[in-house]
Amino acid sequence: MKSNYLPITSVATIINGGTPKTSIPDYWDGNIPWLSVKDFNNDSKFVYSTEKHITELGLKNSSTNLLKADDIIISARGTVGKLAMIPFNMTFNQSCFGIRADIEKILPHYLYYALKNNIQTIKGSTHGSVFDTITLKDFDIIKINVPDLETQKKIVRILSAFDQKIELNNQQSKTLFELGRQLYIKKFENNDTVDKIELGNFFPVVTGKKDANASSENGEYPFFTCSKTINKIDDYTFDSSAILLAGNGDFNVKFYRGKFDAYQRTYVLIPNNPKYLGFLYWAISYNLPKITANYRGSVIKFITKGNIEEFKIPFADNKFIPVFMKYLEKIEKNDQDNETLAEIRDILLLKLISGKINLENIES
User: Fold this and answer.
1) What is the pLDDT of residues 102-116, one digit of tens each?
2) Rg for the chain, CA atoms, rounded
């Protein structure tokens, strides 16, 4: 493959985002998705949903712009370099840039992969003393390899196969999660004959470590924080199947099996009896708004161990308990498969974009 390195702005248009005034209710809660980095802070190729939406009035009366199908969004401030493609019309905030491919020069999906391959270069171009930031000028400087369109099609065809499988796994996991949720509601939450038991009877609530600098860029073990970002660490404290509950900020629940560590206010819940793990995962997920309702803090919301231990859930040791674990194990298997698929895809990505793989005999 012939290398042809060009500035990003020579093959794409960079689009600014913005935020409608939050003090005007008519600008918000409409039908137009409004993206921030928390909506695509993962390894998924596409972003399908947003936490917030705006109205047509909000779009017209703010500096935000409309991204269209096959446009790309990249986070540009704070958490820099998160990337996703847009499947349908969405708006976005000023901490991100939209990127629209010039389809006569570059395929949108190839542009996504070329940008993904250059994320470290993009991160290395950040400015700012308080927040890492990339600017419009950086897109004039950063270059990507732009081969002919036929070669681009071949590269996209290979890499997209991995992302399509990852997406199928994600969709199946979402379905399994909803099945578990509906089973819990029907057999436990809406069952008046079931007694309620404090969560503290199922496990001790353990807090993560206080060392905020424990994470390591090249660490071997996952390091969970209260944000949705997972860092790495050189050592681990926990080696078990566990439910992790983010105890401040955006409260959320996650299941993890293996060696890991966690930061302070990330509560690690390891059941005394492993067979209840799946049931407890859905019980906590469903009741999370109630568990966190009595939060403390005016600036950063947080809960204590007591909020978790003293919360009561309906429980009866019946025939449905093993079903939850089957759902959870399948979701876990999908997550593990996706990690493997992503690793292989990224290895191929580097070799394909750099021209180290011969594509002559591959159909476009």
Assistant:
1) 999 999 999 999 999
2) 23
List the 52-54 sheet strands across, edge first.
52-54, 28-35, 91-92
Mean pLDDT of 319-333: 96
Enumerate residues 6+ apart whose C-beta is below 8 A from 2. Answer: 147, 148, 355
Beta strand residue intervals within 102-212, DSSP E: 143-145, 195-198, 205-207
Question: What global pTM score does this model have?
Answer: 0.88
> Is the pLDDT score of 280 beyond 90?
yes
Task: Name which of 124, 146, 144 is nearest 134 in CA terms.
Answer: 124
Within a 10 A sphere around the Cβ of 105, how many other Cβ atoms? 14
Dihedral, CA atoms, 10, 162, 338, 98, nearest 10 degrees? 20
Distances (CA, A) of 216 to 78, 240, 257, 274, 280: 18, 21, 20, 30, 31
Tokens of 75: 């986070």
